[in-house]
Write a structure and sequence with these properties.
Elements: E1 2-8, E2 12-17, E3 23-26, E4 29-31, E5 40-41, E6 55-57, E7 60-61, E8 64-65, H1 68-79, E9 91-97, H2 103-116, E10 121-126, H3 127-138, E11 144-150, E12 155-161, E13 164-165, E14 171-173, H4 177-191, H5 199-209, H6 216-223, E15 234-237, E16 248-249, E17 267-270, H7 273-276, H8 294-303, H9 310-315, E18 317-320, H10 329-340, E19 349-350, H11 358-367, H12 372-375, E20 377-378, H13 379-385, H14 387-393
Parallel strand pairs: 1-9, 9-10, 11-18, 18-19
Antiparallel strand pairs: 1-2, 2-3, 4-5, 4-6, 7-8, 10-20, 11-12, 12-13, 12-14, 15-16, 15-17
Helix pairs in contact: 3-11, 4-5, 8-10
């Protein structure tokens, strides 16, 4: 029987059969300014000639799956002929859901998977649990790990001991990639150019030029300098979707500091925005969100756990999710944790090679474990016992 692993994130779906490679596909629908009437789903984004003013229709709001119509259309597209050609009667699915998901959402998901699509069996699980499984698989001698999952809607910190999550230690910070992109849109719109409708383009800008500062105040001083002295300044060429399909950063030696560029390119000049936006992951209070940053939340999580286990968690902190890809993120987090943690305990923060697909890879490994058949709910079980069998089996 084939096993399909779907890490159903709020921004991208990571999907693939357990014997194949992963595909990363936008988990949403789009409408563009140029063709208002047509709706594009998932990877049909590539068909849009002019993605300026792209309007996103997301199935997730604040990290929870609320728009089932959009989600169904995305899944129909993923499971359909163009993509994975799923034979539902012979396929088992591993699908992720957020921590502390609402029971109504869980019931709807059970119904759709078993009654509409009629999968042979299903396993609903947190993405962090798959990441922990992956970590323990690569380091079988370790007993504990702390998964830091910084995604589109939230950042979750979740401790695991022997693949069991410790619910008392789970922390959530309401800062994710969506908030960072929106904040960057506001800053650029206020200072330079109205880009509030350009989510797609500014998200690309964020991924291309933002980084996590190691010394925030020192970088702030550099960012205030004029012309060539400002070594942090970058000029970003915005796409016009005719000759320039994708925005890019101008090489430093081609930057013009006094006067204008000869070419008709539209330029964004970025200085302190480059590091002030990702700084919100460490200091949400900078923009009025009264919450702890990631380092404090990690320490708070570890301190809520039994004392004899704490050293193990400090030594096995695993980063997953798109925000951990900012250059300097791991180094800054490790430095801040070092200053907060007890002096005698070693601190180690691990950034996997591909933090975005790390939990998907964990699902792939899980599908090949001997216990897998014990963990799933089959369609027969579901038809006989209803939702209660899922609640008993899935430790969410």
């Amino acid at each position: 029987m084939a096993t399909l692993v779907l890490d159903n994130g709020a921004y991208t779906a990571k999907i693939g059969y357990s014997l194949e490679k992963v595909s990363i596909i936008p988990n949403c629908q789009f409408r563009s300014k140029t063709s208002r009437l047509k709706t594009f789903t998932a990877n049909q984004l590539d068909e849009i000639k002019d993605p300026s003013g792209l309007f996103y229709i997301l199935p997730f709001q604040k990290g929870y799956l609320v728009n089932w119509d959009v989600q169904r259309k995305v899944w129909d597209h993923l499971f359909g002929k163009e993509m994975f050609k799923v034979e539902f009667a012979d396929t088992s699915i591993v699908i992720t859901e957020p921590y502390f998901n609402f029971s109504l959402i869980q019931e709807s998901m059970n119904e759709i998977l078993f009654e509409e699509y009629q999968f042979q069996s299903a396993l609903r699980i947190n993405a962090g649990s798959l990441s922990a499984h992956h970590y323990f698989h690569t380091k079988p001698t370790e007993l504990c790990c702390l998964v830091v999952d910084s995604g589109f809607s939230f950042t979750h910190i979740a401790p695991y001991c022997r693949s069991k999550k410790m619910k008392d230690g789970i922390r959530r910070i309401n800062v994710g990639g969506k908030l960072l992109t929106n904040h960057l849109k506001e800053i650029i719109s206020y200072r330079q150019l109205h880009v509030m409708d350009e989510t797609h383009v500014i998200n690309q800008v964020k991924e291309d030029v933002c980084y996590v500062s190691q010394q925030f105040y020192k970088d702030m001083e550099i960012a205030q300098m004029k012309a060539e002295e400002n070594t942090l300044m970058r000029d970003y060429v915005l796409p016009d979707f005719s000759s320039i399909k994708k925005g890019f950063c101008k090489p430093r030696e081609e930057m013009v500091f006094n006067g204008k560029y000869k070419t008709g390119e539209q330029i964004l000049r970025l200085a302190n925005e480059r590091f002030a936006v990702p700084e919100m992951l460490f200091h949400p209070s900078d923009i009025g969100i009264q919450e702890m940053g990631i380092p404090e939340a990690i320490v708070d999580s570890i301190q809520s756990l039994p004392e004899e286990m704490q050293p193990h968690f400090y030594q096995n902190i695993v980063l997953t999710g798109g925000n951990t890809l900012f250059p300097g993120f791991r180094e800054r987090l490790e430095a801040e944790l070092r200053s907060l943690a007890p002096a005698h305990l070693p601190v180690s923060v691990i950034l996997p090679e591909n933090p975005v697909c790390y939990s998907w890879e964990g699902g792939k490994l899980l599908a090949h474990t001997p216990d897998y058949d014990e963990m799933v709910v089959t369609r027969e079980d579901y038809e006989e016992n209803g939702h209660c069998i899922c609640e008993d089996k899935f430790d969410i």
